[in-house]
Amino acid sequence: MLAEVFGDDAKISKATASRICQRLRAEFNDWRRRDLSEVKVDYLYLDGSFFKMHARAKAEPVLVAWGIDTNGHAVFLGLGPGASESAGAWGSFLEDLKDRGLRPPLLVISDGGKGLCTAIETSFAASLHQRCLVHVCRNLVEKVPLHAQDEVKAGYWAIFDGIEAEGTQAEDEARRRAKRFVAKWEQLYPSAVACVKDNLDALVVHLRFPKEHHRRIRHSNLIERTFGETRRRVKVIGRLPGEQSCLSLIWAVLDRASKGWRGLTMTPKILRQLQDLRRELLGGPPSQGQVNEAVAEAVTAAA
Question: Among 102, 153, 167, 269, which residue has the least CB neighbours within 10 Å?
Answer without folding.
Answer: 269
